[in-house]
N-acetyl-gamma-glutamyl-phosphate reductase (Sphingomonas lenta), 308 residues
Amino acid sequence: MLMPSIFIDGAAGTTGLEIRDRLAGRTDLTVVTLPEDRRKDPAARAEALNDADLVILCLPDEAARESLDLIRNERTRVVDASSAHRVAEGWTYGFPELEPDGAERIAAASRVSNPGCYPTGFLALVRPLVRAGLIPADHPLTVNAVSGYSGGGKSMIAEFEGADAPAWRGYAYSLAHKHVPEMTVHAGLSTPPLFAPSVANTYRGMVVEVPLALHALPLRPSLNAVRSVLAEAYDGCPLVAVAPAADLIAIEADAGTDRLTLRVCGNDGTGQARLVATLDNLGKGAGGAAVQNLNIMAGLDPLAGLIV
Ligand SMILES: NC(=O)C1=CN([C@@H]2O[C@H](COP(=O)(O)OP(=O)(O)OC[C@H]3O[C@@H](n4cnc5c(N)ncnc54)[C@H](OP(=O)(O)O)[C@@H]3O)[C@@H](O)[C@H]2O)C=CC1
Ligand SMILES: CC(=O)N[C@@H](CCC(=O)OP(=O)(O)O)C(=O)O
């Protein structure tokens, strides 16, 4: 694709603006957005969607499905940042580092679904361990996570920047969060993890933690064995790092970047581990991941525009 044209549908939203920032000043592609008075006009969107080589959908799920219906040609390729197609047939999961052939599959795909922000942290920690046989597919995992409030888009930003915003709030207590199917499928699990998300009164950043009783796993791996599997899985991946264990981990650790940092903490004496991922919900959790997928699909420098 020579000098591809990229249309951002939803460019005025939280994720859309992040993507615009990352694409600003790039000379290897052209960026198309609609003016304020036409950005929700289906006719204007249809024209832009069909003219572009590649579109990035930064929309609520329903509007993302509508955009796909508006695409009437075989040429336009899509990166969807919404949660509408993460386990859908015909879609490639846009997490290049997750499987050995991940980037290759994304490069060849016409429809790529960006991962959710929480699943990005969870899957990065768990998928290599399932693949290596250290975590059995039916193991009942728990995921505790805290997101910055930009994770809820414009409406949550307005709420947390208004009066009486909480310092922290747990949610999804009915254990039916929309990210659970995505976590289950792409980790290769048969038992859905118990997902306990929460939101903190800070704009961006995310901590995703999987507590793991190593002594209860069939192979009883040491902390080092777990760390080695992760280090090998992400060897040569510039955005994903396996960092040393830490006793203090802040939600801001990777905020403002497109990095994803994994840590294997715990106590070999008790056989207990805390697997911890930090990322920016708007970085590797959304906008950074979309730009990374776009770069790979268009055959451009895979790190162009990313904040490493
Ligand atoms: N925020 C995050 O951390 C993450 C978000 N995502 C996903 O990315 C997508 C966008 O989220 P986010 O940016 O946070 O949400 P926002 O609410 O901040 O932005 C959504 C944008 O879409 C616009 N929009 C809504 N309906 C239409 C329509 N029919 N046609 C054109 N534009 C429309 C909205 O318009 P208006 O400005 O008028 O409201 C808004 O600008 C969602 O699917 C979300 O789940 C994924 C990972 C992380
Ligand atoms: C704090 C907060 O509310 N976060 C959102 C998830 C943000 C995100 O990952 O978006 P997708 O749903 O598109 O994956 C939530 O829990 O629904």
About this structure: Residues 117-281 form a domain with the Dihydrodipicolinate Reductase; domain 2 fold (CATH 3.30.360.10). The chain is about 30% helix and 20% strand. The radius of gyration is 19 Å.
